Amino acid sequence: MAAKKFKLISAWRDPDEGLSVTNLRIIPEASLMNELQDLLDNNERWADAIKQEDPEFFAKLARQQTPEYLWIGCSDARVPANEIVGMLPGDLFVHRNVANVVLHTDLNCLSVIQYAVDVLKVKHILVTGHYGCGGVRASMQDRQFGLIDGWLRTIRDLYYENRDVLAQLPTEEERVDRMCELNVIQQVANVGHTSIVQNAWHRGQSLSIHGCIYGIKDGRWKSLNTTISGFEQLPPQYRLRPLGEA
Ligand SMILES: [Zn+2]
């Protein structure tokens, strides 16, 4: 196999556009195309199929996205958001991270929620976990995986809080799956505790947060019956009055 020739430069510049990107390693386009050819071919077929069904589909999408749903799910490659619930691009606003965690210090996730709620005005937030989640499983083990351990730390706390109940389940698979459900319920609560969601409720905006879980083994997506859609479902200690209200 011929060695790939890389050109290492400290900055990439497009002289025509005046754009620059720092510390980019340029790979000749020909070798990149070989590695991605299958995906490029797939994409062409996919775009053609959609256009055949609705010639205006991409033109409409390019003008506007008006999703009613925000999906918060796991990064796991086996849990593709749109396909599971039979939706097309434009129908779901999506945020994914390892083990579908919602942390109050995560600027990424909070920015997604804020934009979805305040600007796109989604009506539903779907927190979707999945059975057999590797992130949840890692939070229950006594070994290190690296940087990810910190990200998963609040799931370990949840595992500790529920250790006695979980210990009564006969197999590790059942304990992991139950923890996957508990994690979803905790993340639903975390979304409800944000000032973003509570301010939407203060404004009278219709917004529900649902806890759902997906089974990789059978492809079924189900509700965990933990929907919250107003203050009365939150403990008083978590209810926040609007900013500036005495
Ligand atoms: Zn997962």
TrEMBL record:
<comment type="similarity">
    <text>Belongs to the beta-class carbonic anhydrase family.</text>
</comment>
<feature type="binding site">
    <location>
        <position position="74"/>
    </location>
    <ligand>
        <name>Zn(2+)</name>
    </ligand>
</feature>
<feature type="binding site">
    <location>
        <position position="130"/>
    </location>
    <ligand>
        <name>Zn(2+)</name>
    </ligand>
</feature>
<dbReference type="GO" id="GO:0015976">
    <property type="term" value="P:carbon utilization"/>
</dbReference>
<dbReference type="GO" id="GO:0008270">
    <property type="term" value="F:zinc ion binding"/>
</dbReference>
<keyword id="KW-0479">Metal-binding</keyword>
<protein>
    <recommendedName>
        <fullName>Carbonic anhydrase</fullName>
        <ecNumber>4.2.1.1</ecNumber>
    </recommendedName>
</protein>
<dbReference type="GO" id="GO:0004089">
    <property type="term" value="F:carbonate dehydratase activity"/>
</dbReference>
<keyword id="KW-0456">Lyase</keyword>
<comment type="function">
    <text>Reversible hydration of carbon dioxide.</text>
</comment>
<feature type="binding site">
    <location>
        <position position="133"/>
    </location>
    <ligand>
        <name>Zn(2+)</name>
    </ligand>
</feature>
<feature type="binding site">
    <location>
        <position position="76"/>
    </location>
    <ligand>
        <name>Zn(2+)</name>
    </ligand>
</feature>
<keyword id="KW-0862">Zinc</keyword>
<dbReference type="Pfam" id="PF00484">
    <property type="entry name" value="Pro_CA"/>
</dbReference>
<dbReference type="InterPro" id="IPR001765">
    <property type="entry name" value="Carbonic_anhydrase"/>
</dbReference>
<dbReference type="InterPro" id="IPR015892">
    <property type="entry name" value="Carbonic_anhydrase_CS"/>
</dbReference>
<dbReference type="InterPro" id="IPR036874">
    <property type="entry name" value="Carbonic_anhydrase_sf"/>
</dbReference>
